[in-house]
Every structure is written in structure tokens, then in C-alpha cells.
């Protein structure tokens, strides 16, 4: 018997698919909506191979409220939503900001309206550390705690901050309205998960990030350099006030990140906190050069890079203070940066075409048996 039914928006994407897997492993029933703009339905096959269960899937755009209504109507047992669906590139958001506001903010409003119509009261929102902006502008805010003032420096971060406000206003209004009507108000809750830099792949080597077009994150770009799909990595600035001049980020293994969403969902269902923000990060900062060196070590040879000018909207240091999530959610990162590098290399070296190819037979067999092969296996 499922412990509950959860709708995941953007559930065939990188973090969404890993979260779907974590929920299915925890005996939730999962329904996914995704427009497949930057993801693949093949991720559903890999989820099924790894856990023996398959999410229900609907090809739906998050901005289409009528289509969302049909999904909720078809699954009246849905009691919670985990919301990933969004455009997510910092650089691109400065080039096409209206599209980011239309999809990210407009899509969330469509989702919340549809949820309310169907009496679905819990939402776990995939926010971002970009809502903090440049935390070095405020004394004693590195590593970054949840009470750090919000101040995003790019349109992507502003959409995330705006959505946090919309969810907060919505949940508080629903609670107040329910109180006035003498109805149970505690069921309306929201989790704002501000996470840092997702990294890595599934240890099985058959599930990972498969960006369509140019990746926007450092590790997938390094993966393309390592497999020869890209000549070199561009390092945006080496004149930051860090130990080697490059920007500092907090990398979190995607498997740990997925477990963080499960922990937040359980917290909402069990504790009814209203709206609460949690940082999901490791608390360990890593520079771009340190990440290049760590991944090069796993690959076995130096990876080519070129330093270019800073990128608009980038900041010096995004390192999490994860103490609140550690204490309240009983969650902390268990996997290391080295684990993330090894798992990513296992994925990209054996699946150079991502989900557009079948995984190596040996990896498939090992996954079905619950084993892990080394990255160099063919």
C-alpha cells in the first residue's frame, strides 16, 4: 500500500527523475508531468529498472492549467506536489528573461491554481541558492544560512525568489481562509528547498544527467570535455577573491539531493509547519579549479580549459550552511565530491549519447542485480 501519491512536475529531468526514484523506493506512488523540453522519457525506463516500479507519466506543459486539471482529476489520491518544472540557466535567463518569467512564475501560478481546485495542499518547491545573490555583501553570511537576506543577481534567481513569495502568500492565505471557515488549516504547507550545485549520476551507471543542447552546469561540461565532445571548458573568471581566483560553489550529489526532497515531503506531511525554507548543501565550498582537478584525477588525465571573462550574474561564493536541514529534516549529505566525480565519469564514459543509446549490457545486468561496476568497465 502506497504511503501517499505525489505529483512531480519536471519529473523526467535530472533532479526530478532521481527524486521520483527516491519516492518510489520509499513506497510513494508517483505521477509525473513534463513537457520533455530538456529531458527524455527514457528516464522512466531507467527508474523502472532500478526500483521495479514505473511512475505514471503525462506529457504536459506546466503553464497549461487545463491540462494540469485533467491530471489531478485522473488521480484524486494525489495529496502533495514536488515542483521542479522550470527553465534553469543563469546565463540564458539574462538573454530571454520574459520566457523565464512566463514559464517559471506563470507555470507555478497555473500549478497552484490547479492544486487548490483539487484540494492538494502540500508543495515542495525546487528553489535555488541563487535567491541569496552575493552573500558576501552581508557580514558573516558564508556559509549561507536561511536567514541570509534574499537578493538575486539574475533573472533566473529572481524567478525563484518570486515563486518563493507566491507560495508563501498562497499557503498563508489558504490557512487564514480555512481558519475563518472553521476548517482544518494545518494541511496547507510549503517547503522551499534552496539547493546548491547538483552533481553526479546514479552509481549504477545507467541513469544521469542528459542535457539536450549545451549543458549549463560545470560537471556535465567537464564530462563532455573528458569524452571528447567538447574541446575545452570555459572558466568564467579567475580574479575572484578566493584561494585560486575562481568562484566557489557547494556541490551536492544528486542522490543526496533527491533524499532531501523526500525528507522535506515527509516533514510537511508529519509536522504541518506552514512554509519553511531549508538549504540543501554539503557545507563544503569547492573552487572551479579544484573541481577540474578532482574530475581530471578520476578521468586519469588533465582536462583542457581556458579562462575567459566573468559571466553576468555570477557571484563569488555559494556555500551552504545546512544545519537547519540537518537538525529538522534529519537529512545530511552522505556522498562526497569524489563520489560525484566517479559516478559522473561512470555515466558519461559508458553512455556518451546519454539516453539516446542503450546502456552497456554489463551495466544493465549489474543494475538489475543491485551491483555497481567500475567506471572503466565496458
Automatic annotation (TrEMBL):
<dbReference type="Pfam" id="PF01370">
    <property type="entry name" value="Epimerase"/>
</dbReference>
<feature type="domain" description="NAD-dependent epimerase/dehydratase">
    <location>
        <begin position="6"/>
        <end position="281"/>
    </location>
</feature>
<keyword id="KW-0413">Isomerase</keyword>
<dbReference type="InterPro" id="IPR036291">
    <property type="entry name" value="NAD(P)-bd_dom_sf"/>
</dbReference>
<comment type="subunit">
    <text>Homodimer.</text>
</comment>
<dbReference type="InterPro" id="IPR005886">
    <property type="entry name" value="UDP_G4E"/>
</dbReference>
<comment type="pathway">
    <text>Carbohydrate metabolism; galactose metabolism.</text>
</comment>
<dbReference type="InterPro" id="IPR001509">
    <property type="entry name" value="Epimerase_deHydtase"/>
</dbReference>
<keyword id="KW-0119">Carbohydrate metabolism</keyword>
<keyword id="KW-0299">Galactose metabolism</keyword>
<protein>
    <recommendedName>
        <fullName>UDP-glucose 4-epimerase</fullName>
        <ecNumber>5.1.3.2</ecNumber>
    </recommendedName>
</protein>
<comment type="similarity">
    <text>Belongs to the NAD(P)-dependent epimerase/dehydratase family.</text>
</comment>
<dbReference type="GO" id="GO:0003978">
    <property type="term" value="F:UDP-glucose 4-epimerase activity"/>
</dbReference>
<comment type="similarity">
    <text>In the C-terminal section; belongs to the aldose epimerase family.</text>
</comment>
<comment type="pathway">
    <text>Carbohydrate metabolism; hexose metabolism.</text>
</comment>
<dbReference type="GO" id="GO:0006012">
    <property type="term" value="P:galactose metabolic process"/>
</dbReference>
<comment type="function">
    <text>Mutarotase converts alpha-aldose to the beta-anomer. It is active on D-glucose, L-arabinose, D-xylose, D-galactose, maltose and lactose.</text>
</comment>
<dbReference type="GO" id="GO:0005829">
    <property type="term" value="C:cytosol"/>
</dbReference>
<keyword id="KW-0520">NAD</keyword>
Amino acid at each position: 500500500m502506497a504511503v501517499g501519491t505525489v505529483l512531480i512536475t519536471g519529473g523526467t529531468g535530472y533532479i526530478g527523475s532521481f527524486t521520483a526514484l527516491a519516492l518510489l523506493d520509499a513506497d510513494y506512488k508517483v505521477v509525473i508531468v513534463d513537457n520533455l523540453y530538456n529531458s527524455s522519457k527514457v528516464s522512466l525506463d531507467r527508474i523502472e529498472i532500478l526500483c521495479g516500479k514505473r511512475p505514471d507519466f503525462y506529457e504536459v506543459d506546466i503553464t497549461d492549467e487545463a491540462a494540469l486539471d485533467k491530471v489531478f482529476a485522473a488521480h484524486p489520491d494525489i495529496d502533495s506536489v514536488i515542483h521542479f518544472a522550470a527553465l534553469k540557466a543563469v546565463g540564458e535567463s539574462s538573454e530571454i528573461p520574459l520566457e523565464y518569467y512566463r514559464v517559471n512564475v506563470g507555470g507555478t501560478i497555473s500549478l497552484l491554481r490547479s492544486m487548490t481546485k483539487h484540494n492538494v495542499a502540500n508543495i515542495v518547491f525546487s528553489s535555488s541558492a541563487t535567491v541569496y545573490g552575493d552573500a558576501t555583501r552581508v557580514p558573516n553570511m558564508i556559509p549561507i544560512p536561511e536567514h541570509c537576506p534574499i537578493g538575486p543577481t539574475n533573472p533566473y534567481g529572481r524567478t525563484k525568489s518570486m515563486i518563493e513569495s507566491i507560495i508563501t502568500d498562497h499557503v498563508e492565505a489558504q490557512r487564514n481562509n480555512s481558519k475563518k471557515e472553521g476548517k482544518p488549516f494545518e494541511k496547507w504547507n510549503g517547503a522551499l528547498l534552496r539547493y546548491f550545485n547538483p552533481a553526479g549520476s546514479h552509481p549504477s551507471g545507467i541513469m544521469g544527467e542528459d542535457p539536450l543542447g549545451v549543458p549549463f552546469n560545470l560537471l556535465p561540461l567537464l564530462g563532455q570535455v573528458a569524452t571528447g565532445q567538447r574541446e575545452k571548458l570555459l572558466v568564467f573568471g579567475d580574479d575572484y577573491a578566493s584561494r585560486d581566483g575562481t568562484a566557489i560553489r557547494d556541490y551536492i550529489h544528486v542522490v543526496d539531493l533527491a533524499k532531501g526532497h523526500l525528507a522535506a515531503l515527509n516533514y510537511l506531511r508529519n509536522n504541518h509547519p506552514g512554509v519553511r525554507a531549508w538549504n540543501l548543501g554539503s557545507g563544503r565550498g569547492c573552487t572551479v579549479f579544484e573541481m577540474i582537478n578532482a574530475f581530471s584525477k578520476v578521468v586519469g588525465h588533465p582536462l583542457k580549459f581556458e579562462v575567459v571573462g566573468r559571466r553576468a550574474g555570477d557571484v563569488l561564493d555559494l556555500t551552504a550552511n545546512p544545519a537547519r536541514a540537518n537538525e529538522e529534516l534529519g537529512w545530511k549529505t552522505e556522498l562526497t565530491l569524489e563520489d560525484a566525480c566517479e559516478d559522473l565519469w561512470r555515466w558519461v564514459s559508458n553512455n556518451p549519447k546519454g539516453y539516446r543509446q542503450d546502456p552497456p549490457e554489463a551495466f544493465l545486468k549489474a543494475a538489475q542485480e543491485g551491483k555497481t561496476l567500475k567506471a572503466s568497465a565496458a
